[in-house]
Specification:
Blueprint: H1 3-10, H2 15-18, E1 33-38, E2 51-52, E3 58-62, E4 67-71, E5 77-82, E6 93-99, E7 102-107, E8 117-124, E9 129-136, E10 144-145, E11 151-156, E12 160-165, E13 171-176, E14 182-187, E15 193-197, E16 202-206, E17 212-217, E18 228-233, E19 239-243, E20 248-253, E21 258-263, E22 268-274, E23 277-282, E24 288-293, E25 301-304, E26 307-316, E27 322-327, E28 331-334, E29 337-339, E30 346-349, E31 354-359, E32 367-368, E33 374-378, E34 381-386, E35 396-403, E36 411-420, E37 426-432, E38 442-447, E39 452-455, E40 469-479, E41 485-494, E42 500-506, E43 508-509, E44 514-515, E45 519-523, E46 530-549, E47 555-563, E48 568-571, E49 587-605, E50 611-614, E51 620-630, E52 637-645, E53 653-661, E54 670-676, E55 681-684, H3 687-691, E56 697-718, E57 723-728, E58 742-745, E59 754-762, E60 767-774, E61 780-788, E62 792-795, H4 798-801, E63 812-817, E64 823-831, E65 836-840, E66 842-843
Antiparallel strand pairs: 1-29, 1-34, 2-3, 3-4, 4-5, 5-28, 6-7, 7-8, 8-9, 9-27, 10-11, 11-12, 12-13, 13-26, 14-15, 15-16, 16-17, 17-26, 18-19, 19-20, 20-21, 21-25, 22-23, 23-24, 24-31, 30-31, 32-33, 33-34, 35-40, 35-43, 36-39, 36-41, 37-38, 37-40, 41-42, 44-49, 45-49, 46-47, 46-48, 46-49, ...
Length: about 850
Amino acid sequence: MSLLRHILGRIAVFSALLGLTCLASAQTTTVAAGTLRSTDNSRLVTGVRIEPRPDGSVWFLIPLNDRIVQLQPDGVTFKQWQIRQDKDLGANPVDFEIDGDIIWFIENGASLIDAGYSALGRLDTVTGQLREWAIPGAKPAGFWRAPDGKTVWIPQTNGRLQSLNLETLQVLDYRSTKTFAYSDVVFGPDGALWMVDFGDNRIVRYEPGAATETSWTYFDPNVGRVNPTQIQFDANGKLWISELSIGRMDRFDPVTSVLAEYTGFNNPIHFDIFNGRIYVAEAAGTNGAVVVLDPSLAAVFGEVLTPETLQVNFTVNKLATKVLDSTITPTNFTTTVTTIADADLIVSTVGVGGLRTQFPATNAYGISAQGGGVWVGSGGDLVRLTLQNIGTSADLTVPVAAEFGVSPGERIRIDVTLFNQGGSPISGDALLLFSPSSFAPRMAFTVNPGQTVVLTDAFGAASTNNGLTLGPVRLRVTSGTGSDLVASVRTARISDDGSSFGFSLPALPGAQAVGAGSSRTLFTDPRAGTASVLGIYAVALSNVTATLLAPDGTVRGTRLFVLDSNVSEEFNPAASAFGVSPEAGDVVGLTVNSGSIQSYINVLDTGTSDVATSLPVAARNVSIFPNVGEIVGQSRSYVSDLFLSNPDSGSPAHITVTFAPLNSPFNDLTATSVTLAPGESRVISDVLTALFPIMQGQGALGVSADIPIAASVRLAARTDAGDYGTFVPTFDPNDAIPDGAAAFAFDAPQTATRRTDLLLFNDGISGTVTVIGYDGDGNEIGRFPIEVGRQATRLNAVLAVLGVSDNLGTGRIRIETSPRMRLFAETAVVDASGDVDITRLIPAQ
């Protein structure tokens, strides 16, 4: 029976067991970008591993000239340690790991050591001291250093698993009756060594020193050898395997013994895992190629394997381990950096759930995908790829939106609202960048001058019934004046009665993202029955330091994010990004070292399934909230929670909180004091009742402090099931509408289930505010004046007041102020569910 017929004859589909998802999405061009860095003498970059470091350097191996190489942070200088002189080449370093300034590596050549031996090396990159242990065993397949600091486990391709004691130099050889030829090893989350035996197509689990091993044969070795080349665990404890000879990636579940099989690859030789996606280097072809596989999208075949327990015996190797010491002086080489032409980067689909990017270099070998940017060894080049090189800094973006479900039925959908405030038409497209393994769903748009357009269910073709399709949205302008376009993106769960709830985010240009040198605070929600999810989206290649802080200012964890352009990461719960469990009152501090990002914490209320988005807050001395409330009702009540954080770890913050009741003169405000210790954060639930106390009422809230602090307010409709909440915008004193100027809200519906209220706070002199309504085509509906004193004011259902009786989903509200007012203005779009989206008005051009 042929190898192909054997494969086809044994495949069984386990859709329910494996979570089969099939995504048919609208396609657009996915644009990649890349550079080639040539090596010294164009020697081949064929080491197993490539490792980018936080300082911007990149480590890799060039086995053909026995070099350990570090690309310096300048991106053009290679620092190189050659472990054999030119006359003695042949040590062939193939795999390594970094431990501070120390590089541990293995050699599969025999230069300067006896035949039948292999070597483990230790290079001190500061002193240049090199120690090599020549071990009696051929062709190491990998290594694992035990926590005791003296034992190293090394599987060999000549049929043994070895342990080396670095102090006594004793080598023990371990074998079972089926041990044939190992090709890789990893230490599993269960405390065992996991290996692949390419001689007999086995997955092997072995606890160091145990008398037995467990193995699973996943392909009959009498039919053929599939040549597994690498294994790696993902974040969910599943073991991934690249199968060189049969063009397949496999995912093995140690709990269920299910082997999931993903086909369509061309000689997958090495891979990396980032953000749940598998980045695969393909060794075949005249071009180099990288495939990104998204298991949540891909079609998958599988089978249940049968475990087998085998006796493992060990013997003391009678041959002596030899220690070789030397000193290596590094040399430098200035590389040539070549930009890959767009026409030479070819992007194509690999079945469903995979994209292949080909580039003009021969083959591909070692690969890294950390941060979503791909480094790969290919021929005599170190290659850098950006797989989603879409858009410019002028594009409008939001960090997250989500689709779920297929009509008819329960849906979560994305609506994009666009307004053209200029004098000429604007055309472009909206892209949902939900996965680097799929072409981005897109919807084209044209918006005429003064027109408001809603792209309802903009990316519906990307929806499935198997899970959220989630990612950032990018709006590209292809004709017209891009700066005249304003937009928002709403993710909403649509109920049978027409009501909807979710979250709405403003689309921002790159200049308004959080840029280099900026720090921000993100608040989690401490209430029981909520989950706080942290997300970071890199608008451009970014380096970000994140810190998780307890309410008392204790640092619970830090993490450095280096993310490529258009790459996003999400962590549920937020604390999991730092390797700890969530605690009530956690805050996340972000400092952008380079690049620009958009970030968020999405707070899911598990009772209502509503999401409130906590956006990053800058520390400031004064924060203004035009409308907060404590309103008691029969079916629902409205509550407001105040979030405070003192980012200064050395000074206390003395805070004054003021409240100006609705429709009362400014001099009627009341005040109370709060003190935050250095680094402290606090959530004041039901802030009006807690601080003033006001059992029922609404008005403007002001927060002032003697040092800059972060402040935010969460407004929620409280029901028996839970909350429908939103975090409201924070105004700086400079955010007032300019003296005598105008502002507008373009996403202002008036429908059977949604209305738009206008919330105003004036701390200037009394004056007149003229309120004007427009339909989606820019036609004026009507206008009326309102006298506003130095006070907080609320106008409910503005467009209904202007006479709108039909469903108007594309309404716009404009306000014009009289001189010497200092007006802070926002809209509240209230849904029949009780959910509210609050948006600050935009100054008119």
